[in-house]
Amino acid sequence: MKAKRGLILFARSPRPGQVKTRLEPALGQERTLVLYKRLLSRQIALLKQCPDARKVFWLEGNPTQEVLQNFDGEIFLQMGGDIGERMGHALDKTLEHCDSVILIGCDSPGLNQEMLEKGFQALEEGHDAVFVPATDGGYVLVGLSKAEPELFAGIPWGTQAVMAQTRDRLERLKLSWKELDAVGDIDEPQDLAVLLEFDDAFVDILEGVDVASLATS
């Protein structure tokens, strides 16, 4: 029997020099890795707030990393070429076992349980897709009620045009979708200011970093 809801965490295994490398000029390699592990742990904890959903970690890299041991769902290795192919594959496979599926990464600490619930509600109300756009032009959450591999093909991943081109694709495919409020994500040094919104959760990582200067650079 299919589960009603599926939740995908889509991320890389934490490895020095392999994650969030664009942040290394501001943080250095060691602190960048610490930040990534903390963001990853935060999203693992977020998924635990959704006990009724089937949880699946689609991983790039080594599944034996210590930080992954707290994940209480299934773990599979990502398959495909670019990130679009890999996300499409993860969603397609998880939709085989769930009526609707939401996929998130670990770039956005602003995602919360309320947003996940609103996303599932949008799909259960009849929308084909749901998104939480990122303030930089991408998106940090995508949910589907049926497999749509064309939605992810040929998108210029890693650019400010991702969400705009995805909207064009949604219209071309005649899909109904809903967008929730945009949130910030952490990709570039200027994005580190987003971390200041979370009290002292990241204060040690930002110690000595001129975040205000980075935000305006």
SSE arrangement:
Elements: E1 3-12, H1 24-48, E2 54-60, E3 74-77, H2 83-95, E4 98-104, H3 113-124, E5 129-133, E6 139-144, H4 162-172, E7 177-179, H5 203-206, H6 211-215
Parallel strand pairs: 1-2, 1-4, 2-3, 5-7
Antiparallel strand pairs: 4-6, 5-6
Question: Could you give a quick summary of the protein structure above?
Answer:
The chain has 217 residues and is α/β, with parallel strands linked by helices. The chain is 32% helix and 19% strand.
What does this structure look like?
The chain is an alpha/beta fold and about 220 residues long. The protein has one domain: Spore Coat Polysaccharide Biosynthesis Protein SpsA, Chain A, CATH 3.90.550.10. It is about 30% helix and about 20% strand. It contains 6 helices and 7 strands; from the N terminus they run βαββαβαββαβαα. It has helices at about 25-50, 85-95, 115-125, 160-170, 205, 210-215; strands spanning about 5-10, 55-60, 75, 100-105, 130-135, 140-145, 175-180. The chain has a 7-stranded mixed sheet with strand order 3-2-1-4-6-5-7, sandwiched between helices. About 40% of the residues are buried. The mean pLDDT is about 95.
List keywords for this structure.
217 residues; alpha/beta; Spore Coat Polysaccharide Biosynthesis Protein SpsA, Chain A; seven-stranded mixed sheet; 19% strand
What is the class in the CATH system? Alpha Beta
Give the number of DSSP strands.
Answer: 7
Spans of 5+ residues with little confidence (pLDDT < 50)? none
Major sheet strand order: 3-2-1-4-6-5-7
Percent range for β-strand residues: 15-25%
CATH topology: Spore Coat Polysaccharide Biosynthesis Protein SpsA, Chain A
Measured distance between first and last alpha carbons = 52 Å
CATH level-four homologous superfamily name = Spore Coat Polysaccharide Biosynthesis Protein SpsA, Chain A
Helical proportion, percent range: 25-40%
In total, how many domains does the architecture comprise? 1
CATH architecture: Alpha-Beta Complex
Major beta-sheet overview:
7 strands, mixed
